[in-house]
Amino acid sequence: MMRLIFTLFMTLNLILTTACGGGSTTNKDGNYEATKKMVVDILQTEDGKKALRELMTDEEMKKHLIIESDAVQDSINNVLTSEKGTEM
Description:
Layout: H1 2-19, H2 28-43, H3 46-57, H4 59-67, H5 70-81, H6 83-87
Helix pairs in contact: 1-2
């Protein structure tokens, strides 16, 4: 879930940066905070919530979230290194 939000945030940040003429930035901290606030505001709108819902229902995104989940990777590693896993 956090990776999805991070990916969405980074995508929106890239779009906003390029759309707003993000060529040379002299005040990076101010721009970051302003962009962060803007993205959070966008995500709290109905359109932002709708976009998140659509991402969460996308089958390809679900596969990536499940496969890349740390809990799943840890579980697989634990099963494979357990006594039963080594016997198999």
